[in-house]
Amino acid sequence: MTAPGGHRSRTARYVLAVDQGTNSTRSILFDSSGRLLAIRQHEHDQHFPQPGWVEHDAAEIWHNLQRLIPDTLDDAGVSATDVAAVGIANQRETAVVWDRRTGQPVHPAIVWQDTRTAAYLETLAQRGIADEVRACTGLPLAPYFTASRLKWILDNLPGARARAARGELLFGTMETWLIWNLTGGPATGVHVTDVTNASRSMLMDIRTLRWDDAMLDLFDIPRALLPEIRPSLHIFGECVDLVPGAPIAAALGDQQAALFGQTCFDAGDAKCTYGTGAFVLLNTGTELVTSSRGLIPTVAYQRDDEPAAYALEGSIAVAGSLVQWLRDQVGLIRTAPEIETLARTVEDNGGCYIVPAFAGLFAPHWRSEARGVFAGLTAYVTKGHIARAVLEATGWQTREVIDAMNADSGLPLRSLRVDGGMTSNHLLMQFVADVLDCPVVRPLVAETVSLGAAYAAGLTIGVWSDFGALRRNWHRAAEWLPTIDATRRDAEFASWKVAVTRTFDWVQ
């Protein structure tokens, strides 16, 4: 097997995927049929120094990966020389700044969930430039995206902006940080990002796929700090550490990787990943579809020497984390799976709705001042009703996003492919099918983020020949069909929308 770009020939048969997520990092080995051979996972610490602040230690994440990859290969009985390529998927929008010479982060990574820059972005909105930002980047002025986090670090770390302008500091999201370390760090590290992650920065022109001077000026970001933007399916460099000589042949944001792993390659294909949050992506092909309903046009993926494929995305901030909250903060359940058992003790939600705007609402509302509410409480409501309302909150939020997608794209949803930890909850998946009034399908391989990273890397170097070969690897494990009465669905959705309005304007 010969990789393009002059890289040495390899007889390897395996593809290693790195899934660097919000709560943990995973290393997964796949064979040429897309079969999962071995998986290792390690959680990293979550730091909450102030209300609304969320931070990670990027050095801890790199050290975890240094342990995970060798253990994964050992578990599979595979040598590093048997690895044909490495693909990386990552939590998006999390900002890392490090010292080019020492390789050490100069500040904790500021995580995509962090809201410390909300007030600053509000001042920008009051200047009337939100439309200009959206026209260039496709993104609303929200603290979800990377630029304001990077600006905050440069503003608050003494001397950082001057050091950045001199090229002493480097910036990236997590795939940039890991690629730089895997390719040699301070000695030979490659400083790159891919178009999917760059499209979440609020610094890239979403049409030209280049850093935009006007956005860099707006956020006062020195260009010398930024990585080079490259296609998603591309040989970024060869590993010096952990898998010596293996090409890093793909990098995608985690939600784009899930879209790829679900083989959603045609316009109109859609997936939703149900994890800490929930993320719906609809492939719109090579057409950039703008949204007037709170959705985000984003880059889905790009192959070398080909136009980018675009997607519409609806990002839901709180999904699985609401179940975690019910377990860890409220103590109503002891384990996450118990919520389905508890919810099945009742027939409906008893008129109770929970809108989990813990740190504002994402798509389609984008209300950073919103805060969560319980609505419709009466003395009739039991813990079973609350459990069901917790699950239904994820379903109703999905409905809001899909309605906006159908209207914006003109591509009515035919079915929704789902993945992520919450898809093991059959009651929730049935509810999603009911409220969307379309089939919900779960694949045989649940690790679709990692699989997408592996598929993209393998496609780049020829492990798989084309999209058709990847589609033939995809197999259905479960399907849920809608059963609810339309009148009941519409009435309950109307109640949900009223509950959502109660969250608005909470933070003054």
Total helical segments: 16
Shape: globular
User: Could you name the ranges where pLDDT drops below 50 across 5 or more consecutive residues?
Assistant: 1-10
User: In order across it, which strands form the biggest sheet?
Assistant: 17-18-16-15-21-22-23
Mean pLDDT: 92
Tell me roughly what share of residues is in helical segments. Answer: 25-40%
Note the beta-strand portion: 15-25%
Protein architecture, described:
By secondary structure, this protein is of the alpha+beta class. Helix 9 packs across helix 14 (448-461), helix 10 runs antiparallel to helix 12 and helix 12 (383-409) packs across helix 13 (426-436). It contains 16 helices and 23 strands. It has a seven-stranded mixed sheet. The chain has a six-stranded mixed sheet with strand order 3-2-1-5-14-13, with helices on both faces. It is globular.
What is the strand and helix layout of this fold?
Layout: E1 14-20, E2 24-30, E3 36-43, E4 55-56, H1 58-76, E5 83-90, E6 96-99, E7 109-110, H2 118-126, H3 130-137, H4 147-156, H5 160-165, E8 169-172, H6 174-182, E9 192-194, H7 195-198, E10 204-205, E11 210-211, H8 213-219, E12 228-230, E13 233-238, E14 247-253, H9 254-261, E15 270-274, E16 278-285, E17 296-301, E18 309-316, H10 320-330, H11 338-343, E19 353-355, E20 373-375, H12 383-409, E21 416-419, H13 426-436, E22 440-443, H14 448-461, H15 467-473, E23 476-480, H16 486-501
Parallel strand pairs: 1-5, 5-14, 9-12, 15-21, 21-22
Antiparallel strand pairs: 1-2, 2-3, 4-7, 6-8, 10-11, 13-14, 15-16, 16-18, 17-18, 19-20, 22-23
Helix pairs in contact: 9-14, 10-12, 12-13
